[in-house]
Amino acid sequence: MTSRAVSGPVRSMLYVPGDKPRAIEKARTLDADAVILDLEDAVAPEHKAEARANVRAALLAGGWRVPVLVRVNGLNTEWEHEDREMALLSGASGLVLPKVEDDRAASQLALGCPLWAMIETPAGVLNAPAIAAVPGVAGLLVGANDLARVLRTRPHPERLPLLHALSAVVLAARAHGKLPLDAVFNDVRDPAGFARECEGGRALGFAGKTVIHPDQIAPANAAYGVTDEQARQAQALLDAWAHGRASGKSVVTHGGALVEQMHADEAQEVLTLWAATQQAIQESGAESSH
């Protein structure tokens, strides 16, 4: 059974440890836009085989309302081949590959299943444009914990030491029409810090955020979503733009500001995201009622 492909907004991607069956079942009921069943960092070596069996069972059972990806163990590990074979044969929506550092590795694993490349090292950041250019790559996910450790940065509430790397990943992904997803926020007891980091990531251009706890889903969805009021404002701008152009005006103003084609394009993007989000909510509600 093939899981639903990632096609709508990805405001939140929830990591779920593969060796926690109860957490996997709970994830079915949550409102994340996508789920990543994790076989890598969240699973101790002695539990890898058990986790793989759990993830296989969860994928084959179906019933997921959202796309389900599998984070496999990395290249040159003893688990890599069995992980990828299981995910591909069990119908995962995509493979999440840790520590991708060049386009060669990404190209080798573009196996007909969307690949989400984790950028977690300096080499990965420097080669992000080439990685994003690989046809089979669907998006880039930042792994800030490993990146910060290798760069020997110090913690900072605004992530100033990592801003260059974060922007580089966004730039690479957007240049090739791929989705950039921001890194996890480790302290689940700090909702204010999480909200601040979501807003910062949205400002940098990320499409959504990877999360590690159910309580982080709603704030991520809100930060990376579109409110009804924002949709209304976008529609009003488009209406003013269309009316002005139809009247033969070369300059259109709305709310006292000059409106150009790029503003109209941006407003249309807002409405498209809002419509996709509303559709996802409706589909989620309909499936929950069955």
Automatic annotation (TrEMBL):
GO terms for biological process: oxaloacetate metabolic process. Mg(2+) binds at residues 120, 146. GO terms for molecular function: citryl-CoA lyase activity; magnesium ion binding. Keywords: Lyase, Magnesium, Metal-binding. It comes from the Bacteria. Substrate binds at residues 71, 120. InterPro entries: Aldolase/citrate-lyase_domain, Citrate_lyase_beta/mcl1/mcl2, Pyrv/PenolPyrv_kinase-like_dom, Pyrv_kinase-like_dom_sf. Its cofactor is Mg(2+). It is an enzyme of class 4 (lyase). The keyword Metal-binding applies. It holds the Pfam family HpcH_HpaI. Its EC number is 4.1.3.34. Residues 11-214 form the HpcH/HpaI aldolase/citrate lyase domain. This is Citrate lyase subunit beta/citryl-CoA lyase.
